[in-house]
Amino acid sequence: MGKLHVITYGCQMNEYDSERVAGLLKERSWELTERESEADLILINTCAIREKAEEKVFSKLGELRALKARKPELIVGVMGCMAQLHQGAILKKAPGVELVFGSPAIAKVGDLVEQVRRERRPVLETGEAPLVKITAKPAGVSRLKSYVTVMEGCEKRCTFCVVPVTRGRQRSHAPTAILTEIRGLAAEGCREVTLLGQTVEMYGRDLTPATDLAALLEQVNEVEGIERIRFTTSNPFNFTTRLIHAIRDLPKVCEWVHLPLQSGSNVVLARMHRGYTRERYQELIAELQAAVPDVALSTDIIVGFPGETEADFAQTLDVVEQVGYDNVFVYRYSPRPGTPAATMAEQIPLAVKAERNSRLLEVAGRIAAARSRRLLGRTVDVLVDGRSRKNAAELQGRTRCNRVVNLEAHEAVSVGDVLPTRITEVLPHSLRGMFASLPEETACLSK
Ligand code: SF4
C-alpha cells in the first residue's frame, strides 16, 4: 500500500495506541518507516495535557507542510487527545492535515485512511465508539517490557484536566481479553507488563459482573513467563486496602507505586476537585509503607495552580519531605481549554511557577538521592533489558523499584535474565552493580 511514519507525543498510553495503529495499518499492507521523508502517510499521535505539548504538535505540522508541498500525495493525520479536544479546529489551523481522529476511532483507522485516499478531502472522526481490545502490532515488535491498556477514560473531572473530554467515560476491558493479550506477549518473550489506565485503580468497577484491579493482578500474576507487573496511573481517591494487599502478597507485582499528589495543600486539592485531603493521602502512604516496607513511590505535582499561595506551596514541600519519594514529576500549571481551572481567578504568573518548579525539583532531587543511597551494598533482583545507553559494552537493567542499573557485561548473561545484583555505586540518575550470581548458579540456588 505504502509507507507509514508515526510520531508519538505524550504518555505511555499514546505509545501503546501508536503501536496498535501501526499494527492495524500493517494488516492493510502499510509498512512502517523510521524516515518521515519516505512516508506516504504520517500520523501524529498527540497529547493535550499541557499547552507546550500542543505547541510542539503545531510546530511539527508546520514542518510537514514543506514536505507535503514537495510530495502532494502525502497524507498527514492527527490522532489522539488533541484531535478529540480540538476536532475540526485542527483542520483550520493546520492546512494540509487531511485526517483527524480521536482515540475511540483507532479501530477504524484502516477505513479512515482509505477514505482520505479515495476522496482526497479532510476526514474528521471524533465521535464515541464501543471499546475494542486491539492487539495488532507492527512487524518485528516483540518486547521484553510491554504496556497493556486495561481501561480507558476517566470520570473524576479534576478541574485542571482534559482527559475526561479527550478519552471519554471510564470503560474497562474484560479480564479475558487482557489475559489473552498478556499470554500472547509472554509467548513472544515479554517479561514485564505495565497495566495502563488513566485511573487504573478503578479498573473493572464498570464491568458486569464488576471486578477490581486486585483481582486482575492476581490473574496476571499467574501468567507463565511474566516476571514483573506494574500499573499506572492511580488516583489516591480510590486506592483500596485490597489493592495494597495485592502489592504486598503477589510476588510478581513490583514494590513500585506512582501515586499523584498534585498538591500538599487541602485548599488547593479542593479547588482541583481531587477528592482527597492531604491527611488522607498521607494515611494511604503510611498504610502502603507499613504493608510493603521497601515500596518505591513516585508522584506528579502541579506547581502554580490558580490561587496557590506560598503557604500552600510550603505544604506541598512538606508532604514531599515526609513521604520520601523515589521520583517526583513536577509540572507548571498550564490552563487547558474548557476546564474549570482555566477560568479561575488568581492565575499565577509564569515567573512564580518557574521559581516554585525549581525549588520543588531541588528538594525532590535531594530526597531521591537519599533514597538511592539506601540501596548501596544491597543485593537486589535486576531484570537485564539491554545494552547500557552510555556504554554499549555494558549491560543495563532495572530493579523492581524501577531504578536503572548499569553492569559489566558477562557472556553467561542474556537480555531477559533476572539476576541478583549487588549495588556498588549510586549516581545521580542511575546505579552501578555487579551480578551477585550468574544464570547457572542462580538456577542451582533456586533448586
Ligand atoms: S483522575 Fe487523572 S485523568 Fe481523571 S480527571 Fe483527574 S487528573 Fe484527569
Cα-atom Rg, whole angstroms? 23 Å
Largest sheet: 6 strands, parallel
Bound ligands, named by name, code or SMILES: iron/sulfur cluster
Number of E strands: 19
- Runs in which pLDDT lies below 50 for 5 or more consecutive residues are 443-447
Structural category:
alpha/beta
Main attributes?
447 residues, alpha/beta, 6-stranded parallel sheet, 5-stranded mixed barrel, 19 strands, globular, binds iron/sulfur cluster
Quick overview of this protein structure:
The chain has 447 residues and is of the alpha/beta class. Helix content is 36%, strand content 22%.
What does this structure look like?
The strands form 5 sheets. The chain has a 6-stranded parallel β-sheet, sandwiched between helices. The chain has a 5-stranded mixed barrel with strand order 15-16-17-19-18. Helix 8 (213-221) links the parallel strand 10 (192-196) and strand 11. Helix 8 (213-221) runs parallel beside helix 9 (241-249) and helix 12 packs parallel to helix 13 (350-373). The chain starts with a strand and ends with a helix. The chain is of the alpha/beta class. The model is unreliable at 443-447 (pLDDT under 50). The longest helix has 24 residues, at 350-373. The chain has helices at 12-26, 51-70, 81-86, 88-93, 109-119, 163-166, 175-187, 213-221, 241-249, 266-272, 278-291, 310-323, 350-373, 439-446; strands spanning 2-8, 30-32, 41-46, 75-80, 97-101, 123-125, 145-149, 151-152, 171-172, 192-196, 228-232, 256-258, 296-303, 327-332, 379-387, 394-399, 404-408, 418-426, 431-435. The protein has 14 helices and 19 strands. It binds iron/sulfur cluster. Iron/sulfur cluster (SF4) binds at residues 154, 156-158, 161, 163-164, 198-199, 235. Iron/sulfur cluster binds next to helix 6.
